[in-house]
Amino acid sequence: MRKVYKKVESVSGNVITVHATDVAYEELAEITTRRGKSLAQVIKLEDDLVSLQVFAGSRGVSTSDEIRFLGHPMNVSFSEDMLGRIFNGSGIPRDNGPDLAENVIEIAGPSVNPAKRIIPSRMIRTNIPMIDVFNSLVASQKLPIFSVSGEPYNELLARIALQAEVDMIILGGIGLKFDQYMYFKNILEEGGALNRSIFFIQLASEPIVEGLMVPDLALAVAEKFAIAGKEVLVLLTDMTNFADALKEIAITMEQVPSNRGYPGDLYSQLAARYEKAVDFEGSGAITILGVTTMPGDDVTHPVPDNTGYITEGQFYLRNGRIEPFGSLSRLKQLVNNKTRKDHRAIMDGMIQLYAQYLETIEKRSMGFRMSSWDEKLIKYGDLFESQMMDLRVNIPLEEALNRGWSILAQCFKPEETGFRSELVKEFWPHHEAPAEV
Amino acid sequence: MSLVTGKITGVSGNLIIVVVDGAITQNEVGYAVKGEQRLKAEVIRIQGNKAFLQVFESTKGLKIGDQVEFTGELLSVNLGPGLLEQIYDGLQNPLPKLAEKYGFFLPRGAVLEPLDQERTWAFTPSVNIGDKVRAGFYLGSVPETQFTHYIMVPFDVKGEWSVVETAPAGNYTVSQQIAVIQDERGNKRSLSMQFQWPVKLPIMAYKTKMMPKEPLVTKVRIIDTFFPVAKGGTYCVPGPFGAGKTVIQQITSRYADVDIVIIAACGERAGEIVETMREFPELTDPRTGRSLMERTIIIANTSSMPVAAREASVYTATTLGEYYRQMGLGVLLLADSTSRWAQAMRELSGRLEEIPGEEAFPDYLESRIAEFYERAGLVELHNGGRGSLTIGGTVSPAGGNFEEPVTQATLKVVGAFHGLSRDRANARRFPSIHPLDSWSRYSSAVPVDIVDYARDFLFRGTEVHQMMMVVGEDGTSLDDFIVYLKSEFVDAVYLQQNGFDPVDAATSPERQNYVSQLIHSLLRKKFEFSSKEDARSYFYDLRQKFIDWNYMEYGSEEFAVQEKLISGLIKG
């Protein structure tokens, strides 16, 4: 029988301290307050004074509340039974299903030996041309969606989740609004994907500390499934809330802040999660798509900035579209030479022309006269935006490539596009009349 | 002497506070004992009977009262044959061996011998009984990949000793005795091929340190011509994310004209080092025709590996570099990224509740960075030979802002600055080293007047470009417009280089000299164009031909044909 402590020494923010012995670093405790039971985790030991972060928050904690140490760190049960289930940030079911207690695994386990990693090589198709054609997603990639509040990033995540060729989806919601949570639930249900999904959700209405565990829970489970051979897609939304939770705890613990109040270890903390993305040789893989909302659309804000250094590219979601500039998949070169031989040419060529289109738009807005070439570019730009960039466009890669050629042929003569003659010969559609403008 | 032990009285992150029962040393190694596991840690502060240790592993599960055993030794690495081709973590654990033993994950507290203890090496002695030796003197040698690996008198040996025993030529493991030396007072010491050296102390078993003069050829044109690096010098590559830091490091690690390359992946993505790890064994070294891995050591302490070991990884890499420098070799250390190391220092400084400096970095940040880069250098060895250690560090400034403390502290101590620009990266102008902001104090592979002349054009071209943004092309004079076109031309055909093309990726200094002469003649030439449109089409045509030329093998027939075409165009 483990000892029960009944004297809380201090309450500050969501951190409480208690005098206790034989407590391990990062051990879990259960605190019983008038509001019910909550888990808490040891975050500092100083002689016999133990600091705990209380997941349910310290609101309503009384100095005489009961604290029972559980003798183990945070863990989660892992089994096939988890599929289709929804848990909260402490790993407790939030649906009406039964508790799961068997086959408990450690969360935030050791990192993968770099010597056992392999070079990623499998493309994940999403049927979104801006991803498949221009910035292909690769199994084991870690990629954030940089966006601002109000953009349809969760809709994009849900769509990728539904359409991506993966075995299972794990959704980690950190500070998720209730309607967004319901949206994910409904859309995956409608799409028939709920039974291959697992949710770990901390709602925006719940204490932010509870969100701290969400990425670790999601990734620990993902890791086990990947080792068992599953292709797992982990969605984390929104990682800026996660960083804010770290900030809150750090400030409460009186740590010296480094940049805009964020703790000095923000980079390491984020990296420890994103680096769980891996392709296990001979088994499955974990691919991570995160959402990082940029406060004030500022990419130099510590959260997107540190994230950018960790992840393998990023998708900029702006005005409801994935921006071709700034968006980058660092791993696309590893896969887009194996799809179709015109893939890379379309990828580079269309973007270069689109860049010229933007210059033309700028010229137009400054009142410069439009040449016939400018007119062609404008037509091209409009088609590109409506038939490729629009997020409603939902076609497989091959069709998207064909559509690319078709857009080009509607606007330009082959020699104006700078494509290699060999490709023009094979792919240039002849029925499309070159535009008369 | 019985070893000192202590009991944990505090845990916070990777810092533990230990009450000790005896004398301890700053930077000494201790082990926190957790059941079967022994977690390596280093003393970083002492206060009365309390020692503060940074733990190189996760501290999860440690309890108040847990035992800590001190070793009396500073954090050290093993030096000896067998270091090349290895992939180590920051504490010199061989990662492939760990993978063999433990599988996918890096278990906590796992430690393996850094050097293969079974493998035998063909030792040839080079000293005789009675010879006088000092630290760093050669006792003999073994062949290691394509190098002669000299077996040296350990660097901690003080004063003059004489050889009293030496092993005959033959095959030995690294731990077998190969010599015995004796000092004036008759103290004997048995020597094997491996010995230890504390990573935080520079190896100074050489005669003198010299001024780095000879260029270190990287085969990257913008570096060798405009912002050169010297053998034994230092340089830094700061840049925002996505600007191509890692690609530049990868290209340099492949083509740099040095004997040995040590890659320290410090707190960066594992994926990147995996590319190097998997590809290097397949790639051939253009200098020797052998596998690139044979001249490479990789230290991988990636971002999800324990933070405290990040700091150690930089020092481990430097120490291995200094060791090979003692053999008269040219060593290049590439540290990616020093910012992560600085962040590790910041994290710890916060836990120690030190008074923070700018952006919460500790105030000793500058001196630590200076100490690190100062370990580079060209040295004259005791036998008259020369060895060099060149250090190139990337910096990942927060928000891409070079005003931040790590970049600024680094700029104070390095000899060359290759600042990467996000604008150039966005415009797909690679390598994205900024041609106006960057600088170097070393001498170029190309005559200085040619370089200065070209730089001048780059400056003026930028000025004209900025002016054009305001007044439009129409408001710019034809002469100014030509200056702009010339500077854009230099940028497109010389500064930019395709790192993925087998020929263009590496330009020899001969070729750089040759090509830059031709560009020089173009820059000097006065052009008469009837219109801007004319000028533009002339330069675009020339640019296309020049870029094609860049993809042709130097000295090949097509190279000569294309050159005629280009010179013809320039002469007009």
Which helices and strands, and how do they pair?
The complex is a heterodimer of chains A (437) and B (572).
Chain A lengths: L3 E2 L2 E5 L2 E5 L7 E7 L2 E11 L2 E6 L11 E8 L1 E3 L8 E3 L15 E3 L16 E2 L4 H4 L4 E2 L3 E6 L5 H11 L4 E9 L1 H13 L6 E7 L10 H14 L3 E7 L1 H14 L4 E3 L2 E2 L2 H9 L3 E2 L5 E9 L8 H9 L2 E6 L2 E2 L5 E2 L13 H23 L6 H18 L7 H15 L2 H4 L3 H7 L10
Chain B lengths: L4 E8 L2 E6 L7 E7 L2 E11 L2 E6 L11 E8 L1 E4 L7 E2 L6 H8 L17 E6 L6 E2 L4 E7 L2 E6 L8 E6 L3 E4 L3 E6 L5 E5 L2 E4 L9 E3 L4 E2 L4 H6 L2 E2 L3 E5 L6 H11 L4 E7 L3 H10 L16 E6 L6 H18 L4 E7 L1 H14 L13 H10 L2 E4 L5 E10 L9 H9 L2 E2 L4 H5 L12 E2 L7 H24 L6 H18 L13 H16 L7 H19 L6 H15 L1
Parallel strand pairs in B: 8-23, 21-26, 21-27, 22-23, 22-24, 24-26
Antiparallel strand pairs in B: 1-2, 1-6, 2-5, 3-4, 3-6, 4-5, 7-17, 9-11, 9-14, 10-13, 11-12, 13-15, 15-16, 18-25, 19-20, 25-26, 27-28
Helix pairs in contact in B: 5-6, 7-8, 10-11, 10-12, 11-13, 13-14
What does it look like?
Chain A is α/β, with parallel strands linked by helices and 437 residues long. Chain A has three domains: 4-72, Thrombin, subunit H; 76-334, Rossmann fold (3-Layer(aba) Sandwich), CATH 3.40.50.12240; 343-427, no CATH class. In chain A, 32% of the residues lie in helices and 26% in strands. Chain A has helices at residues 129-132, 153-163, 178-190, 214-227, 239-252, 266-274, 302-310, 343-365, 372-389, 397-411, 414-417, 421-427; strands at 4-5, 8-12, 15-19, 27-33, 36-46, 49-54, 66-73, 75-77, 86-88, 104-106, 123-124, 137-138, 142-147, 168-176, 197-203, 231-237, 257-259, 262-263, 278-279, 285-293, 313-318, 321-322, 328-329. In chain A, strands 9, 13, 14, 15, 16, 19, 20, 21, 22 and 23 form a ten-stranded mixed sheet that branches. In chain A, α9 (372-389) runs antiparallel to α10. The N and C termini of chain A lie far apart (85 Å). Chain B is α+β, with helices and mostly antiparallel strands. Chain B has four domains: 5-75, Thrombin, subunit H, CATH 2.40.10.170; 119-195, Beta Barrel (OB fold (Dihydrolipoamide Acetyltransferase, E2P)); 208-440, Rossmann fold (3-Layer(aba) Sandwich), CATH 3.40.50.300; 448-571, Orthogonal Bundle (Bovine Mitochondrial F1-ATPase, ATP Synthase Beta Chain, Chain D, domain3), CATH 1.10.1140. Helix content of chain B is 32%, strand content 26%. In chain B, strands 8, 18, 21, 22, 23, 24, 25, 26, 27 and 28 form a ten-stranded mixed sheet that branches. In chain B, β3 (28-34) and β4 form a beta hairpin. In chain B, α10 (448-471) packs across α11 (478-495). The radius of gyration of chain B is 27 Å and the shape is globular. Chains A and B meet through β5, β17, α6 and α7 of A and β1, α1, α4 and α6 of B.
